[in-house]
Specification:
This protein has four helices and nine strands. The chain has about 250 residues and is of the alpha+beta class.
């Protein structure tokens, strides 16, 4: 019996004790790092839920004048004389005045000023958000606004001739532009401006580009009204581009 105890005691060497301490330290360090990672994930999800709530509050409080004068976009309008051209110009001026009157400037928690210029509604993927527009268009400002809602990236004002480009985050869930990569040709995207005019845009192209490729922002639309949605791929290595044209 004593021989067994002595033999067992001989196996517990200083080296073995040192390794045991190292293993114990590594174990507690791993547990600590896992807790930190879980806490970070929980906070990130909380921040996204908070930003989603802010976006929906902006949407609910938007000033949009109901438009009862916008003609169907499929109706052909013939301009007969200068009087009708003047009337159309006055109508456009009135719409601009309504938009400006309904535009309100707000400030993010980080101090960036922005306006809400339109709403985007994509029925197929149940997306409805305000579209924000910053004052400076700096990278830092755009990043701050993207945490709140989809944001204007380039182009004319909403529902005007040209290519209105909108960028939004892909959180790989149902928020913001996460489901935009699932859109297909023929799907409808609705843009409502501050004058209350809603225009339907039909998707006609979708592709991926490198993050540095901004050719999708080209304003060569042959006089058409177009929109471009920009978001990340699920692995964040490329950008998904969705092009749509007025119906």
């Amino acid at each position: 019996m004593n021989q067994i105890l002595v033999t067992k005691k001989l196996y517990i060497t200083p080296e073995l004790k040192r390794k045991k301490k190292i293993y114990k330290f590594d174990f507690f360090l791993s547990v600590f790092l896992v807790c930190i990672l879980i806490s970070f994930c929980i906070y990130a999800e909380y921040a996204r839920n908070r930003d989603e709530q802010v976006s929906q509050e902006i949407l609910a409080n938007m000033n949009i004048t109901e438009d009862t004068t916008v003609a169907d976009s499929n109706v052909l309008i013939a301009v007969l004389d200068d009087a009708e051209q003047t009337e159309e110009l006055n109508s456009n001026t009135e719409a601009e005045e309504i938009k400006n009157a309904n535009k309100t400037v707000q400030t993010t928690q980080s101090g960036y000023r922005y306006s809400t210029i339109a709403t985007i509604n994509i029925p197929k993927i149940s997306v409805e958000y305000p579209i924000l527009d910053g004052e400076t268009d700096s990278v830092e400002e755009t990043e701050a606004l993207l945490k709140i809602s989809p944001t204007k990236f380039w182009g004319p004002e909403p529902n005007e001739v040209g290519n209105f480009c909108i960028v939004g985050h892909n959180y790989r869930n149902s928020r913001f532009f996460s489901k935009v990569p699932t859109l297909e040709n023929g799907d409808i995207i609705k843009i409502t401006d501050l004058a209350g005019q809603t225009i339907n845009y039909r998707v006609y192209n979708k592709y991926e580009v490198d993050p540095t490729d901004v050719s999708c922002t080209s304003q060569l639309t042959n006089g058409n009204k177009e929109i471009t949605l920009i978001t990340c791929t699920n692995d964040s290595q490329h950008r998904v581009i969705v092009k749509a044209r007025e119906v």
